[in-house]
Design brief:
Layout (H helix, E strand, L loop, with lengths): L5 H24 L1 H8 L3 H29 L2 H17 L6 H19 L2 H6 L4 H12 L1 H20 L1 H9 L1 H8 L15 H9 L2 H32 L3 H30 L6 H22 L3 H15 L3 H11 L5 H14 L5 H12 L1 H8 L1 H24 L5
Helix pairs in contact: 1-7, 1-8, 1-9, 1-10, 1-12, 3-5, 3-17, 3-18, 4-5, 4-9, 4-10, 7-13, 7-16, 8-9, 8-13, 11-17, 12-13, 12-16, 12-17, 12-18, 12-19, 12-20, 13-14, 13-15, 14-15, 14-16, 14-20, 18-19
């Protein structure tokens, strides 16, 4: 039996993507417990995120080329199984080195999925419906992140952090088996060599600017993902479970509203504005920057909550549209490579470094100031989206094979 309908494929890969972000974010809800039991500094704690991201971004490009040239379905299934085993292995960690190694291994598994699945989903929907489909797929980011924060905090506080890792790691093996039901994805006969393919996608001006926008956004959001539960714990005295639940609730509510609204807005504006994906993304990042800074500096917990919710709604507007824009400006034969190149650069310049830098800044100047400084990257991301709008029309036409 195969999953033949686009909606069935989207539903399965949405479920997998939710688990992806649960496994990715749960460690951050557990940081206070891990720091206590394993004697980790803030710098070491931040480097756990960097370990994952560095491996993730370096593994994505070669995996994407292999998937484009040999078929993508086996890589999706293998990636889900590998990251689930690696997450479960974190439950056996005895110190910083073993925990660091398990998080790095998660990065290999998620590279198999993250570089391939967005184009696998997008290609099953028409351009008129693609924005909403990718917005639904991207909805996994807030939902999975929230479940990781809330579930990790509550389970970790009640039963210990080791059981929390077991709880989220093992279900992935079941989902990996279900991925065998995905439709067969034939290799692209015209897939270029590694060097030629990556040179082609990086030569697209709009793609480069989209990628720089994603890097700036990822620098800030990656830092927030790691340190916001700890911020609530330190700044407002919340317990680990309460801090994870609060940030998880804000993330899922703001993310659901923002992701769905962003996809709907882009699809609604596209008939009149072909660059609607970039317009919506520019608006979200530009408006989200001051709201996020005000939330961190707010004098009361209630004001912090309200401002952070508003910031997350705006910041999540771009989750579907930016991926849709990448699909629009790249050829089918190099699309997985485009997403892999995007992953490499946004994480190299973004959250591969920011959690560690924020941890270092926190050790020196305090967590609040370190988080405030990272908000500046959001405005930079909005500016890159604005610049990309001028290049979108010509690059999308070339990708579609329309003569100049």
């Amino acid at each position: 039996m195969k999953l033949s309908s686009p909606r069935a494929v989207l539903a399965l890969l949405l479920a997998v993507n939710i688990l992806n972000y649960i496994d990715r974010q749960i460690v951050y809800a557990l940081l206070p417990l891990l720091q206590r039991d394993l004697a980790l500094s803030d710098l070491q704690s931040g480097s756990l995120a960097s370990a994952f991201m560095i491996v993730y971004m370096l593994a994505a490009p070669p995996i994407a080329w292999l998937a484009d040239s040999r078929g993508r379905k086996p890589w999706i299934a293998a990636g889900v199984g590998l990251w689930s085993l690696a997450t479960s292995a974190a439950a056996l960690a005895t110190g910083f080195i073993s925990l660091f190694a398990s998080r790095a291994a998660v990065g290999v598994g998620e590279a198999c999925y993250g570089a391939i699945s967005p184009s696998f989903v997008a290609e099953r929907f028409t351009p008129e419906k693609r924005g909403r489909a990718l917005a639904l797929f991207s909805m996994a980011i807030p939902v999975g992140s929230a479940l990781g924060y809330v579930g990790g905090g509550l389970v970790g506080e009640a039963f210990g952090w080791r059981r929390a890792f077991w709880l989220v790691g093992l279900p992935g093996l079941f989902l990996a088996a279900l991925c065998g039901l995905l439709p067969d994805d034939a290799p692209h006969a015209a897939t270029p060599s590694v060097a030629v393919g990556y040179r082609e996608v990086w030569s697209i001006p709009c793609f480069r600017l989209i990628t720089f926008a994603g890097a700036a956004m990822t620098f800030a959001l990656g830092g927030f993902a790691v340190w916001m539960p700890t911020f609530f714990h330190r700044a407002w005295g919340l317990g680990v479970g309460a801090a994870g639940m609060l940030f998880g609730a804000l993330t899922v509510l703001g993310g659901l509203i923002g992701s769905l609204l962003g996809g709907w807005l882009a699809d609604a504006l596209r008939p009149a504005r072909p660059d609607a994906d970039l317009l919506v993304s520019c608006l979200g990042l530009t408006a989200g920057m001051p709201l996020a800074a005000l939330a961190i500096a707010a004098p009361s917990l209630s004001l912090t909550i309200g401002l952070l919710l508003a910031a997350e709604i705006f910041l999540f507007l771009n989750m579907g549209p930016l991926n849709s824009a990448i699909v629009a400006v790249t050829r089918l034969e190099t699309r997985s490579m485009a997403f892999a190149a995007n992953i490499l650069v946004i994480h190299l310049l973004g959250d591969a470094a920011s959690p560690t830098l924020i941890g270092w800044g926190s050790d020196l100047f305090g967590l609040n100031r370190a988080l405030l400084a990272s908000c500046l990257a959001l405005g930079l991301g909005g500016w890159f989206c604005h610049l990309a709008r001028a290049e979108f029309g010509a690059d999308a036409a070339r990708a579609a094979g329309v003569p100049a």
